[in-house]
Amino acid sequence: MWVFIQLCGRGLGLSSFLNPKRPEFRLILSLMVNILLYLFLRLKTIPPPFCYFCIVAFMLATQLNSMVDEQSLAVNTICQINRFIVNTLKDGRKVVIVMDMEVLRPGDASAAKIGNPVQYVEGGSGAASAVASAEEEHRGPPPPKMPNKGPASQFLSTPGGSQAKVVPIASLNPYQSKWTICARVTQKGQIRTWSNSRGEGKLFSIELVDESGEIRATAFNDQVDKFYPLIEMNKVYYFSKGQLKVANKQYTSVKNDYEITFINDTSVIPCEDAQHLPSVQFDFVSIAELERTSKDAIVDVIGVCKAYEEVTKLTMKTTNREVSKRDLHLVDSSGKMVSVALWGQEADNFDGSRQPVVAIKGARVSDFGGRSLSVLSSSTLVVNPDRPEAFRLRGWFDSQGKHLETSSISNGWSGGSGGSGGGGSGPNWKTLRESKTGNLGQGEKADYYSCIGTVIYLRKEKCLYKACPSPDCNKKLVDEQNGLYRCEKCNLETPNFKHRMILQVNIADFQDQQWVTCFQEAAETILGQNATYLGELKETDEHAFNSIIEKSFFATFEFRVRAKMEMFNVRPSM
């Protein structure tokens, strides 16, 4: 059966008021069902009056919101629905979510509403009798069946003999208690452990994808032992009975406002017949765009590995454990190059000898030495992916890219045809005395230099603050003294916050000493702990917090310093 619709109206769904950044649109559609409509609409003529019309409410999948933004769905627009899913609400009502549709005739080309549509009432007989009457009067050959592009099985049979309805990832929200999704595992992180004053634990995270979207899931402690050996990369499973909560997007690029936490009742069952499900979903940004991307943002990038460094071994201060690190230098058709840090097994196993195309999902942006990227435990790295973007990059690099002089956005790397060295402004090594006598930071632009310094003192009193929990905001919150915090930037009141660090450190070398300000990433490196843990420790165990601070004294680091004279409290400050 061919299904066509004409848009009669449009509005925001209820969830859009709860989450304005991810609006959901409700469409009021005139549903037209008749095989002859295909011919009339394709021939750009008005359908005859014997075609049946009824008014139905649909939800537009969020990935189609661009059609609204681009004014493609004006009133009276005629569309063909190519793919949809049906979701059943708690009260038994059914919601149709449009996953893919094609505009056949824009609204401005359609003079007015076609036909005389009537309101469709679920379970009523009016619609059925109207269709029957129209078809009795104009009987023709049976209509062809539309191909079903949905999952191979819309139901999961449970051990008790009952069936669980499979719902799309896009429909999940914290108000659902019973749900089942069929999804492919596109990323599986390593097991991570923690130990603090409240105890010990372990966790691992996975990323799941189906035709409607993607979501992140995390297992803790007993669920780690239960599910980690079972779940494999790129395999498809039925997942059910997990806890849904608002996602923390600080460490992931998964495009979903919610995430799943495995609980004791969580079920994971392999699915053998789901080859139609997509693999990793990327939302690439060009390397040139990274210069305008905020620090700590999580991004997806793709580039050709023009050069790479040898593996180096670093000792983690917190665990005294040795970890591998390797830097890659990726270039794309924008002519820009960026340095990417790989860690652990990925650093050991990476082979860049053939200059492969590398796609990374969920890399974190750093402003240490210009702009650079770091691959996280939650990131996904794919070498020579089977994607159009990779094929285009391969052709560009082989034909011209490898011969071009590229400009690096990461200080300390040359943009030439290969090898390592000091490109851009270079490392610009200075002693602390040279940094003071060289008038660095006195001009209109900031100066960057590298130095080796030993921590001789740091100010711990105001090194932590409670910041806005929004992913793109680090503004200090105002305590309302009623259990809530206010962000002046976001105009938001919330009981939640995240800990951020600004650490004043006094460093010294063999010639001089200098106060430097270390922000989040650099401060965490010096102290060997993340800000969240330190914030909790400061509130619960001041002695343990002071012990961590004292351990950093007399530790030596390589510093990349930005020097700029700025006004602070009406006085110049470097």
Automatic annotation (TrEMBL):
Residues 179-252 form the OB domain. It holds the Pfam family Rep_fac-A_C. It is found in: Nucleus, PML body. Residues 287-384 form the Replication protein A OB domain. Residues 448-569 form the Replication factor A C-terminal domain. Its main location: nucleus. GO terms for biological process: DNA recombination; DNA repair; DNA replication. One of its GO terms (cellular component) is PML body. SUPFAM superfamilies: Nucleic acid-binding proteins. Residues 58-105 form the Replication factor-A protein 1 N-terminal domain. Belongs to the replication factor A protein 1 family. As part of the heterotrimeric replication protein A complex (RPA/RP-A), binds and stabilizes single-stranded DNA intermediates, that form during DNA replication or upon DNA stress. It prevents their reannealing and in parallel, recruits and activates different proteins and complexes involved in DNA metabolism. Thereby, it plays an essential role both in DNA replication and the cellular response to DNA damage. This is Replication protein A subunit. It comes from Anolis carolinensis. The lineage of its organism: Eukaryota, Metazoa, Chordata, Craniata, Vertebrata.
